[in-house]
């Protein structure tokens, strides 16, 4: 039996991805009753598709370009770029994960920020934090869990957290999903944070002991500059909390990046000046990659 058209696959997937609450009214909802309407709930269930899917996203970023998305989509599906067992699974990853994160996400055309690192074959310890940042920006569940749960509870997270802790956190937010859906999403969230190096462990997750390398930090600062952050806002940007960094740790990393000549950082009182040695982010990727060798 041959592959069906992409339009037919999308039609099937759209039906499958309708609100889990409307499809599973008989399921037990988190908490005693549904207190938040699904349309008012800012989080998605996309993380149940596989969490980080880092290697899949890297392959798609390497293959993506400036051609029309429809043309690139058809080429990716015909070639089975990700070597998935079914074309439906490939279409699912492309539509539900890659597009919202790297093409149509809160950071428009985010693939263009990480592609230069791929082109110069930067090491994974530099590449992975950028993929994590882009993913957390497009998945508020990741960002809020880091800021609201992990960061205030670092001592607890160091000893270990599991699915139940995520479910309790969701319940406190009056999550409208069924228990089954919320559990799958919670597992996907923890798996994503593990794959991105924030947590470690197979079943019981705990805080990883891996620090953000200075070249990776500098490249992330350049990405924030590309999105419009100026010097003072770079220093105090809320996205550093995604990496569980406090204000003094951010300044220390800027000072280290300055010492390694990855950027120029000067502070005098409330005046902050941050500049980068290259005009384009493509050139800067080469600077960072060379410093990482």
Describe the structure.
The protein is mainly α and 293 residues long. Among the domains are: 139-207; 214-291, Arc Repressor Mutant, subunit A (Orthogonal Bundle). The chain contains 15 helices and 4 strands. It has helices at 6-16, 20-23, 54-63, 69-79, 87-103, 111-119, 124-138, 140-150, 154-159, 163-172, 179-195, 214-226, 231-235, 247-259, 281-291; strands spanning 199-200, 206-207, 264-268, 271-275. It starts with 5 loop residues before the first helix and ends with a helix.
Would you spell out the secondary-structure blueprint of this structure?
Elements: H1 6-16, H2 20-23, H3 54-63, H4 69-79, H5 87-103, H6 111-119, H7 124-138, H8 140-150, H9 154-159, H10 163-172, H11 179-195, E1 199-200, E2 206-207, H12 214-226, H13 231-235, H14 247-259, E3 264-268, E4 271-275, H15 281-291
Antiparallel strand pairs: 1-2, 3-4
Helix pairs in contact: 1-5, 3-5, 6-7, 7-8, 7-12, 10-11, 12-14, 12-15
